[in-house]
Design a protein that fits this description.
This protein is an alpha/beta fold. Helix 6 links the parallel strand 3 and strand 4. The radius of gyration is 21 Å and the shape is globular.
């Protein structure tokens, strides 16, 4: 598989509010800008992070980005966030609110949340928080009450509206990337993976990277992903040192993306490509959860990925 130097999910990330594919109830709120702290919650791939970044950029707020799934320590609040809020800049004189973007805030520690409450109160005159999360139940009520919570999950009527928007955007992207996708095939792909636009783009990039230039509905019924090479690697008999070198050189800067794909996308791969290995699903799920949980506590961030792949190799071989 030909590996690209960029991810379509980043290359085609929305640049302004008009580019966002969201229900009108959300777009109407975003068009008003940021006056209160905002918490975007909903399923993965529904545009929460894209909406937060576009909102900050369009209204030209000075901002600090925190990947809360990896920067979980309370020291992040005490040092980085507090320093950002406290330091004055030329933007302060223009009356611009400072924005702290906390991506995937449902992954932080209890101590982080406690420190965050105090910081929000301390700097309420000049700063607002915009946070995203997949699981609202992991965010304490005391934190939720300090935000305007906006759900990115959709009802049936909104779903139909968004599917049309997805199709228009995806056909445009495929045209620009020289990938010819049959209309029925695209509709099938969107329906299968809705609302996860990120997963849809990864699948389309996977087809492109494999050299295909015409995608039919028969292709959609087979598994594909930009990370299929990693899944295949788990089942191959290549020498461990070659697999290690491949993982580090190819995915050393994409560890979080691959670790995420080894959840739902790998499960789909097993169902379609390796059904005989589904009997190992409990052990696989346990190991994926474990290595995802420790990825932020090691010096070399690629180490949990390589360890997970080698562990899964042992499991699927009946070891």
């Amino acid at each position: 598989m030909k590996i690209e130097n960029y991810l379509w999910t980043e290359k085609w990330r929305p640049k302004n509010l008009e580019d966002l594919i969201l229900p009108n109830r959300i777009k109407t709120k975003l068009e008003k800008g940021i006056s209160t702290s905002l918490l975007f919650t909903g399923s993965p791939g529904t545009g929460k992070t894209s909406a937060a970044k576009v909102l900050i950029k369009q209204f030209k707020h000075p901002h600090l980005y925190i990947n809360a799934s990896t920067d979980t320590s309370v020291d992040v609040v005490r040092n980085r966030i507090t320093d950002f809020c406290a330091n004055r800049s030329i933007m302060d004189e223009q009356g611009k609110l400072k924005i702290i973007l906390l991506d995937e805030v449902d992954g932080v520690s209890e101590q982080f949340f406690k420190a965050m409450r105090a910081t929000m109160e301390q700097f309420h005159m000049n700063a607002r928080f915009v946070a995203t999360c997949n699981y609202i139940n992991k965010v304490p009520e005391a934190i939720q009450s300090r935000f305007e919570v906006i759900s990115f999950d959709f009802d049936k009527e909104e779903e139909n509206e968004l599917i049309r928007g997805y199709l228009i955007r995806l056909f445009h992207i495929c045209k620009e990337e020289n990938l010819n996708v049959d209309k029925n095939a695209m509709l099938e792909l969107v329906k299968r993976k809705f609302p996860d636009l990120r997963s849809i783009l990864n699948t389309l990039q996977g087809y492109s990277a494999s050299g295909k230039d015409k995608i039919t509905i028969e292709d959609i019924k087979k598994f594909n992903s930009i990370y299929k090479d990693v899944f295949d690697l788990i089942f191959n008999n290549t020498a461990p040192e070659k697999n290690y070198e491949y993982l580090i050189s190819t995915y050393g800067n994409r560890v979080d993306d691959v670790m995420s794909a080894l959840n739902n996308e790998f499960f789909e791969y097993l169902k379609l490509e390796k059904p005989e290995a589904l009997k190992y699903l409990p052990q696989i799920t346990e190991k994926v959860a474990y290595y995802q949980s420790i990825r932020t506590s090691v010096i070399d961030v690629a180490l949990p990925l390589t360890a997970l792949v080698f562990t899964l190799q042992t499991i699927v071989r009946g070891g």
